[in-house]
């Protein structure tokens, strides 16, 4: 009998412990569910998650900045599929003015006829400035005779109307070797800029000693192993390849030659080859596609850092924030 009572008491004690444990567990679960609900549908910054495609094309000069931005953006927004191509500023505008892409990168401002085409197609393109660049004139590190050039010497080298073919035609102390030219192609904003500020819209030499390409890496590879080659492209491509390329100082109006670097590009002393870099936003896409709006705002918040990481010069921070407020007004 005594054993029976002891067994009964033990069973009652176990039952009470079970009830208490169940009650304690039931109090924890609602708190856990509340925490799960608070994170559902948000990204790392607490805003709504976005998804879908974004199409970007245009300048090969701006490409490194945009490539950097899309990589870091996708780390935070893996459901957004951003494609970035580099068909040149003109190539990008051919697509953006008919609504084929969402952002059009450019190393020159949009031309009046390009804007007119966009308006005819009901496309509103708005300009955003991303960074500063110094268009860099370069030779191979194997070239041991050129350190700087004047604007007039650049014209002798590149103008179709010039009779200079040998380096010795530019300076009698230089070798009697043919000059090999490597230039961005005609769809490139870099070509347009060089053509405007150096060649003054006169035709550039073309032929067997001239290589044109919208791919700046093609130009780099062509110049690096030829001591008689010369070419030009955005500063970031020189900075990335300074172990095999030599950047030349440029002098104007008898002034001392200046080489491009972050300081001379930002303060404007590297003249006339310092310039801003742009992207043009399809405002309809910005309004109608949340992923485009999110990416544009991410770009303006991070373009300065991206520009410096790839070798360009950031704008003042207040310039990015001013443009960000302008962009947000497009959706109103």
TrEMBL record:
Q: What is this protein called?
A: Phosphate-binding protein
Source species: Halobacillus aidingensis
Q: Does this entry carry the keyword Transcription?
A: no
Show the GO cellular component annotation of the record.
plasma membrane
Question: How is this protein situated with respect to the membrane?
Answer: Lipid-anchor
Q: Please name the taxonomic classification of the source.
A: Bacteria, Bacillati, Bacillota, Bacilli, Bacillales
Q: Which domain of life is it from?
A: Bacteria
Q: What is its main location?
A: membrane
Q: How does it assemble?
A: The complex is composed of two ATP-binding proteins (PstB), two transmembrane proteins (PstC and PstA) and a solute-binding protein (PstS).
**What is this protein for, i.e. what is its function?**
Part of the ABC transporter complex PstSACB involved in phosphate import. Involved in the system for phosphate transport across the cytoplasmic membrane.
Read off the InterPro entries from this record.
PBP_domain (IPR024370), Phos-bd (IPR011862), Phosphate_ABC_transporter (IPR050811)
- Molecular functions per Gene Ontology: phosphate ion binding
Compartmental location: Cell membrane
UniProt KW keywords: Cell membrane, Lipoprotein, Membrane, Palmitate, Phosphate transport, Signal, Transport
Query: Biological process GO terms, please?
Result: phosphate ion transport
Q: Could you say which residues form the signal peptide? A: 1-21
What protein family is recorded? Answer: Belongs to the PstS family.
Show where the PBP domain sits: 44-301
Q: SUPFAM superfamilies in the record, alphabetically?
A: Periplasmic binding protein-like II
Compositional bias per record (Low complexity), positions renumbered to this chain: 33-45
Q: Name one Pfam family in it.
A: PBP_like_2
Q: Where is this region: Disordered?
A: 28-53
